[in-house]
C-alpha cells in the first residue's frame, strides 16, 4: 500500500472472536430488565455501539427507560467473559503484513479503553498500530461514521479504507466517506456485507492475507478515495 493510504481496522469480530460473547451478554442484560430478545437477534446488531444497539433492539422508549442500565449490565457481564476471548485466525499476521506494506493502522473500535488495551496485549500489537479509537471519542458510534472520521484523522493520511466484519462497519465507512472491505469472520455472511455496500468481501482474514500483496488489490487500496 502506498504511504498516503491508511487502514481503519475494526476489532470485535474482525481481529478477535468476541461477537458471540457480546451477543450473549446483551441477551442476558436485556433479560435482567424483562426484555425478551434472542441471542441470534442480538448477534445481528453487534458491531453497533451500545448507544445505537439498545434502541435498535427495544425501541426508543426502551432506550430512554433502560438504556444506561442495560449498557452497564452488558459491560459488567462482558468483563467476566473478556479473558476468554481469543484472536481470530490471521489477526496478528494481517497487522504484520500491513506494517510491512507501510500502511498505518488505527483500530476503529467503539469498545472501552480497557478492552482495546487488553486486545492490544492479546495480539502483541502495540508496535503495529498508529493508534485507536474508543466509544469515548464520539457522541454516536457505528453505523454513524463519526468514529471512522476520528480514526482517519488519527491516521493522518490522504486516503483510508475500512476493514470490518459487520454491515454496521460498512455503513459507517460509507458515512465517513471511505471504502470498506468486508471480512466474513463473525457470522454476518458475505451477502449481508455486499448488500451493505462493501467494495470487497473476503472469507475471513486468511483470505484477505492471501490478497495483501496481489497487485490488483494493492492498486485498489491505493485508490481509496481521498479525504475531502
UniProtKB/TrEMBL annotation:
Coiled coil (residue ranges): none
Pfam families according to UniProt: Hydrolase
Any GO BP: DNA repair
Keyword Hydrolase: yes
Organism from which the protein derives: Paraconexibacter algicola
Domain of life of the native organism: Bacteria
Keywords: Hydrolase
Keyword Protease: no
The protein, known as: HAD family hydrolase
Family matches, as InterPro entries: HAD-like_hydrolase_sf, HAD-like_sf, HAD-SF_hydro_IA, HAD_sf, PGP-like_dom2
NCBIfam families: HAD-SF-IA-v1 (TIGR01549)
One function term, GO molecular function aspect: phosphoglycolate phosphatase activity
GO-annotated cellular components: cytosol
Amino acid at each position: 500500500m502506498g504511504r498516503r493510504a491508511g487502514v481503519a481496522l475494526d476489532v470485535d469480530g474482525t481481529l478477535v472472536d468476541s461477537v458471540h460473547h457480546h451477543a450473549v451478554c446483551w441477551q442476558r442484560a436485556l433479560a435482567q430488565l424483562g426484555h425478551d430478545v434472542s441471542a441470534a437477534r442480538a448477534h445481528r446488531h453487534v458491531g453497533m455501539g451500545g448507544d445505537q444497539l439498545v434502541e435498535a433492539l427495544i425501541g426508543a422508549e426502551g432506550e430512554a427507560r433502560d438504556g444506561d442500565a442495560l449498557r452497564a449490565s452488558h459491560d459488567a457481564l462482558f468483563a467476566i467473559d473478556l479473558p476468554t476471548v481469543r484472536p481470530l485466525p490471521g489477526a496478528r499476521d494481517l497487522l504484520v503484513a500491513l506494517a510491512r506494506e507501510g500502511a498505518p493502522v488505527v483500530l476503529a473500535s467503539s469498545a472501552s479503553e480497557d478492552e482495546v488495551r487488553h486486545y492490544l496485549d492479546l495480539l502483541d500489537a502495540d508496535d503495529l498500530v498508529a493508534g485507536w479509537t474508543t466509544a469515548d471519542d464520539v457522541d454516536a458510534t457505528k453505523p454513524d461514521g463519526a468514529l471512522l472520521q476520528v480514526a482517519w484523522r488519527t491516521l493522518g493520511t490522504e486516503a483510508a479504507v475500512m476493514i470490518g466484519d459487520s454491515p454496521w462497519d460498512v455503513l459507517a465507512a460509507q458515512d465517513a466517506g471511505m471504502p470498506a472491505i468486508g471480512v466474513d469472520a463473525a457470522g454476518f455472511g458475505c451477502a449481508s456485507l455486499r448488500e451493505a455496500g462493501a467494495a470487497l468481501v473476503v472469507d475471513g482474514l486468511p483470505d484477505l492475507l492471501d490478497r495483501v500483496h496481489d497487485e490488483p488489490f494493492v492498486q485498489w487500496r491505493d485508490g481509496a478515495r481521498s479525504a475531502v
